[in-house]
Amino acid sequence: MRSTEARALPPVAELEHVTRTYRMGANEVRALDGLSFVFGRGEYWAVMGSSGSGKSTLLNVLGCLDRPSAGRYRIDGADVSALTDDELSEIRSAKLGFVFQSYNLIPQLDVLENILVPLFYQDEPPAGAEQRARALAERVGLGDRLAHRPMELSGGQQQRVAIARALVNEPSLILADEATGNLDSHTALEILTLLDELHAEGKTIIVVTHEPDVGARAQHVLRLKDGRIESVVRDQNSAPVVDPLPDETGVQRR
What we know:
The protein is 31% helix and 26% strand.
């Protein structure tokens, strides 16, 4: 997508004073504490922070796997904060692609069928859906493994299936949760290179990671601490710009 086209569209994801609280016995835990941020179209972000910083909760909210306890979350300009479970499922199917550390493939399905899973809930003509899935399998280097099941693949191959599955619905946003955590260093590099290529093609990617070498591959870095923004570094691989912390209103200034 050209930069002028991206600017004409609403941001992919917007958080406005988002809070997510959980009950742990008699205590209330604020996993996200009034978080406000904008993820622009075509950007590649790494979300980092120590254990308990809120990064996994943020991913769940961004992926419509969880709802904010307070505040608003918009995808492509549409507020999804108060949607029903069925409506959130439709949003996930239409606008989001997921890549998880544990791959989350269905063991009874072969490679082609696993890639097609997000389209089961859409009115996609079967012939067109299969053609797209086959093309994506070729793209990730698995064109000769279409009839194999997950147990017959290496970890890196399974993650490639997961990436193809994340792309098959042509999502607005790709979310990756510790996507290289179960892979050896060589295979991890291959997966990160593939994410680099997808970003170069204009895909919007948010990677949650605790690994510095993974975070270093991203275009921008958002670091969380105690459910709040600790720091933001933009264009880290060219001339880094460190944003100021949110002001007293909680809004992160662009």
